[in-house]
Amino acid sequence: MKPWVLRSTGMADHQVVLAAFLVVFVLHWLLETVLSVLNCRYLARQKQIPQALQAAYTPEVYEKSISYALARARLGHVERLLSAALTLVFLFSGFIPMLDFSVSLLGLEELTHGVVVLLVFVLLNALLSLPLELYATFGLEARFGFNKTTAGTFGLDKLKGLLLLLALGVPFLYGVLAAITRTGPLWWLWAGLLVIAFQLLVAVLFPVCIAPLFNKFIPLQDGELKTQLEALARKCEFATRGIFVLDGSRRSAHSNAYFAGLGRTKRVALFDTLIQQLSVPELAAVLAHEIGHYKRKHVLKTLVISAALTLLGSYVLSLLLDWPPLYQAFSLALPNEPKGLLALSLIAGHFTFWVGPLLHLVLRRHEYEADAYAAAHAGGAEPVQSALLRIYAKNLAAPLPHPAYSAYYYSHPTLLERIDALRNSKMA
Length: 428
Hints:
Elements: H1 13-44, H2 59-92, H3 95-104, H4 110-143, H5 151-182, H6 187-210, E1 217-219, H7 224-235, E2 243-246, E3 257-260, E4 267-271, H8 272-277, H9 280-295, H10 298-320, H11 324-329, H12 337-351, H13 355-377, H14 381-394, H15 403-409, H16 415-423
Parallel strand pairs: 2-4
Antiparallel strand pairs: 1-2, 3-4
């Protein structure tokens, strides 16, 4: 028995595990459902456009943004129900031991057996989620005028994603399983370090090897915009391999910008839809915001937090992976790594859901800091506010979510919170 499992209930260890999971599972589902319902009712009662938003939100856009949020919430209800149902089916139907036994009939070597079990599970999950993804893309997003994806592009993206999963995921799974089974009592440390190294590798490769598989990245063409943005980058002492235009309009009318990469692979990508929607000063504010994330070391801080959580998760995994009560609770027969990893992947999120809102607190602070940096380096708060207003309105982002809902789910402050912070800053 693990030292932190108590016998004071009079229940066997596996019964304690089962009861604890069912209680947390139900509470987690109820919490997210209640938050969603609260947010929907809160949004539905909003009839008056706040004065701070009237420059970008016309009555038609405001009403449409609320309708879009409500439609996404309804889809979220279905996704939550499906996810809950699949979790229970996978855990209690005998699926996991049946999958493990079926793959064992192939007579594969131990590590290959584990990799195949885990890959089949990942692919099955992707297949089961496909109908809702199709509806979200070709139903909901199309209804609100966002979807530009063709069936051919959608299918090709899925094929590329599958090939990428095999190219990167298979070696990664082999490495993790080898660390677990062949590096002794401290395997959790080696496995955790391997996961961290993999995350860093993906961060380095993403802008130059992975993202170009799905989008075209064209260097910003000569003109006023390029002149202004390059001047801003020099002013901020920001060295980059280039500022690129991403062909986001081929798939969606949504607009965005992002900074990605580490070291010599740093890139700033601006969606072509964003360039069409914003003025040159507003685009400069967007670039300054992205540079602000780099200058304030937000990428590094996030990586450190992620690494710490990865090592902690690996250590907890080491306490549970060979623990018989875990397997008895879900009728998984004798412990083995593939079955344990599958069960824990289904269980863990229901015990750690509270980590997300805590991380969002940190990420929202990062956004405030990046906004302040943009205001200080791109002509004051006005172009930053103007850019935010246009981006949120063009993307039909509901500007006034329920406070509890945004605190739980949002990695960015709400639009009004960001505008208030900018107006109260020294750069306003």
